[in-house]
Amino acid sequence: MQKVSMNKGMSDLIVLFSSVGRRTELIRFFTNKDGIYVIGVDVSALAPAAYMCHKFFKVPNFNDAGYVDVLLDICRNEGVSLLIPLHEGEFNVLLQNRRRFEDAGCRLLLSSEEVISICQDKYNTFLFFQQNGVNTPATILPEEIEYRKTEFPLFIKPRNGMGSRYAYRITDERQLRFFIEYVPCPIVQEFIDGTEYTVDVLCDMEGQVISTVPRERIEVKDGEISKGRTVKDWRIIKATTEVAEKLKAIGPLTIQCIIDKNDNIFFIEINPRFGGGVPLAIEAGVNYPDLLAKMLSGEKINPRIGDFQDNLYILRYINSIYKKGDELL
Amino acid sequence: MQKVSMNKGMSDLIVLFSSVGRRTELIRFFTNKDGIYVIGVDVSALAPAAYMCHKFFKVPNFNDAGYVDVLLDICRNEGVSLLIPLHEGEFNVLLQNRRRFEDAGCRLLLSSEEVISICQDKYNTFLFFQQNGVNTPATILPEEIEYRKTEFPLFIKPRNGMGSRYAYRITDERQLRFFIEYVPCPIVQEFIDGTEYTVDVLCDMEGQVISTVPRERIEVKDGEISKGRTVKDWRIIKATTEVAEKLKAIGPLTIQCIIDKNDNIFFIEINPRFGGGVPLAIEAGVNYPDLLAKMLSGEKINPRIGDFQDNLYILRYINSIYKKGDELL
Fold first, then answer.
1. Given CB atoms, is A218 within the 8 Å cutoff of chain B?
2. For residue range B9-29, what is the model confidence (pLDDT) as tens digits?
3. Distance (Å) from the C-alpha of residue B49 to the closest C-alpha of chain A?
4. N or C terminus: fewer CB in 10 A for chain B?
């Protein structure tokens, strides 16, 4: 099933990406790097990124009982030394088995359970921001709403959602009363109007921040950046680096903030994984494959915060792979 | 501003695509074809497809008064013989000026005002289906709803919408009462559960159907096919060809239907333009650039209905172009 020519025996690092899905650009930054051998797994052979890995395995759904054992077998058989999970849905089951992966010689590029719980539950994220003096929109749970005192607009989203699904701007009480029932397990936030930024942060294995690259979200489609550009705004860089250092995360973080018309920064979300737009940070000069390889070898990495190409635009479009039915992996 | 090397003087056909936006794959099928010179225009230099045309012009918004004059100037100066508009928002202003484009030696690849009105207003589409004996979900306007007699689930969408914005499945009266107010200018349809197909149809300049390629919508993102495959189902091919012939359209149509669990076909929508997934039909063997060039030269084209590669999969992913700020067109 080897798809891209590369001799595994010659590689310095064998990486396993789980739930590769449509993460083709990210995968290619790794396959293009000399010395890295890339294995991908996904529940579906219709995952386009499957066709861009050096090797691909179709695996059970991450909710299935046997999932972790299948991954562990792949790690042992293939000599994987780093597992990078790309889908939040599998983070918890992987965390529960971190020790087993490490016993198999494979590091899990994933923060602690505490950090994941802060990031995945957006009400926990709000509490984390508040407790650490980080400016964030006022946020309440449904039972805390006092309809008579509520001012609009508001923003509602699921406590545990990914992307833009079930996220709505709310302009009146009628909408609020409806969406409180319609959105699964919602939180309600003050709506902040302004310029949105996503910041790609990379932390080392000890929680030290190595790189912080803000990108302006000029246009978003389906929750993912569609047009954007890097912005070397030191205020955002410093504020985000501080947030990340308080968190003590491992590996990639994707932190969202908004700057309103009064120039206030509001931090909104922390995603404890590679964001869809991280290819821009890599293209702007932050060599993630290289940095991860060094981290894994135990080499001390000097932080390179702010060291990236400013005002680099990313313009995204849909591309396709075509396969005959009998060519599917 | 020439971006891709091609000698315009040597070309047999000079095509202008308006609102090129993210239609990179479609554009590349044309630029890859010998003898076709491709000019693109868009309101934004952040349109990724701008960087894939032989020549690109940034133009005013299609709602601006001067838009048509700018396009006409480009047609005259560049010797454009075919204008292919890609955004429905500009269809009406172009139709009102069809004669001026033809006087400038440029054919407009767009159906008549009557056809566009049937397609763009989804209640008109329903009436067209009904009047022509084409099976379609029962569809009503808000004022026709009798809440006491209503059965669920239903589907609500804007009468004039594109893509999946403001389209909701409705499961109870509370949702119906809310979304009737929330969705702009809505229609309410019987919800049909089943396998969805999009059919790429190409008509010649006289309304004869040349090609009909059904593709199963295996996964949809943001209203556009994300995973799919061609399906040589003769029942769908014949039924869709009949619909298209009754319509008397010009150029590309994108027709949506659903086959329910009782194997009934329901026709849902007709989009009078290139669909986002038409690259699959082209890749499956229907050479749109070639067929359009022949049509324009006045050559009679024999219909080639059903002549395409069956069970060809399209697996789509997001790709990026990177540009420094000073490299933007």
1. yes
2. 778 899 999 999 999 999 999
3. 8
4. N
